[in-house]
Amino acid sequence: MGAGNGRKVRTVEFRRDSVNVFFHILTACNLSCKHCYINPNAHGTQTLPIDTIRAWMDLFAARKPSANIIFLGGEPTLHPDLPLAVRHARHCGYQSITIDTNGFLFHDILDRVTPDELDAVSFSLDGAEACSNDRLRGKGSFDAVLQGIRKAVAAGFGTSVIFTVSSANLHELPRMPALLQSLGVDRFFIQVVGRRGKSAIETEIGQTAADLWLDQVPRVAEEAAERGMTVTYPKVYLDPDEPFECAGKVADNVFIFPNGRVYRCPLCEDHPLHSLEIVDNRLRERPPITERELFELDIPEGCVMNRLIQPGNIVYGMDGNPLHRIACCMLKQELIS
Ligand code: SF4
Ligand code: SF4
Fold first, then answer.
1. What pLDDT, on the 0 to 100 scale, is given for residue 103?
2. Which of 106, 205, 209, 219 ranks highest by number of CB atoms within 10 Å?
3. Cα→Cα distances 21→59, 229, 323, Å
4. pLDDT tens sequence across 13-47
5. Can you give the residue ranges of every domain in the chain?
6. What is the DSSP string of 201-227?
7. Residues 27, 67, 105: CA angle, nearest 5 degrees
8. Atom of ligand 2 nearest to the CA of 268
9. Architecture of the domain defined by 1-337
């Protein structure tokens, strides 16, 4: 049973065979988070008109009708026509519909859609109190998120919180389960910061060492599940005998950006490696070399893109082999309450 309204909330899935459509309908945002992954050079700066949003949703619904769709930005609630997009997603038959928000909930979005139309509202929160969260996400964002969560829970929406773990906030993670339980949040997603967008150049934001991660994250996940939430978290550091899989081969995720780039792997998003693109409202495959060719590489370090863009989290033993293989960031553990 969820901590909030007792329902099993349907939303994004991070499993083998899962199908997710991450749709960035704009890149504008009212915040300027230190670890923001949006890169205007790679993703564009457009706000897609509603007719284009509908046409692109049709493309991906036709490709895989049972996908989960997640509306993102930038801040997607800045788009005045987001309620129309949500309704069209339901009309297309998407399995679940989620809005990812920084909590400011512009254009009175929760008054303009209903819990029947929208499966989940997902809030980004990176600290258990205002000073820690706002240092990363901007002044006032903690209060805005808590206010937004309370409003969403009271109105009967399914809710989730995404906490992005970095060296700057790992110490805050153990306090999150109690906070989220008190707010009535249904689902808790723990994710690891990736070195992309601003976090690729922001020295304050680093990845956590393997021993710290393995010591703390699974324990916090278990506590959150005991408190009634469904918890999703990445293992990150695989033991040598654990199987490694790349979601680019075993799942079907697409990350759509307003400039028409469509990636299958989020770690590729700073680079022109997208395997698909939308041109004139048509989806087409791009010729090699793209991320697709990288998915086929088999290396002792596990994830190829991790090895290329953030090798600092790989530790090698005396024999020259990595102590851990790095797991795919799109394939995660799930604890059901
Ligand atoms: S709320 Fe999201 S899109 Fe906006 S600055 Fe923060 S990470 Fe970037
Ligand atoms: S993060 Fe690594 S393992 Fe996952 S899809 Fe990308 S390249 Fe594959």
1. 98
2. 205
3. 11, 24, 34
4. 999 999 999 999 999 999 999 999 999 999 999 99
5. 1-337
6. T-TT--PPPHHHHHHHHHHHHHHHHHT
7. 40
8. 6
9. Alpha-Beta Barrel (3.20)
